[in-house]
Design brief:
By secondary structure, the protein is of the alpha+beta class. About 20% of the residues lie in helices and about 30% in strands. The strands form 2 sheets. The chain has a 3-stranded antiparallel sheet, with helices on one face. A hairpin with a 6-residue loop joins strand 1 and strand 2.
Length: about 140
């Protein structure tokens, strides 16, 4: 009795991976309504916004590898938050093959709010992103 399944597929020539289009539904950020579809840089920019706005490990609709870990940053030293935030952003973006990394990461603190600006480098080009972090609850 065979322990492995028999398949007519011949994998001796190797496997070819094809990149699928990034076509997705486009949600208008002003009206919060679906306004058609988006592809390329517009689709990736929307994905970046969603990744940064979803708390990782919190919502069951998203897998454990999707989202950003914001918890644990409130009440910490701004220098620690800035460096940890950069690491966490890179970790959150690592699940999407269309995102190559981030550059021009800068932060400023005003009161109890830290504003972080960065350029997200994608395979379609750069997109600017700004995030605000409350340092005190």
């Amino acid at each position: 009795m065979a322990t492995l399944p028999n398949s007519p597929a011949n994998l001796t020539q190797g496997v070819t991976f094809e990149e699928q289009p990034s076509l997705t539904w486009y949600v208008d950020p002003i009206s919060r309504q679906v306004k058609g579809t988006a592809d390329g840089l517009q689709a990736v920019a929307q994905t970046v916004e969603i990744i940064l706005s979803v708390e990782r490990f919190f919502w069951q609709i998203y897998g454990p590898d999707f989202g950003m870990q914001w918890r644990g940053l409130i009440g910490k030293d701004p220098g620690y938050v800035a460096s940890e935030l950069q690491r966490r952003v890179l970790d959150a973006f690592s699940v999407d093959s269309r995102i190559n990394g981030i550059s021009e990461f800068s932060h400023s603190v005003e009161g109890d709010t830290m504003t972080v600006s960065m350029t997200v480098d994608t395979v379609y080009g750069p997109t600017a992103q700004t995030v605000e972090v409350k340092l005190n609850a």
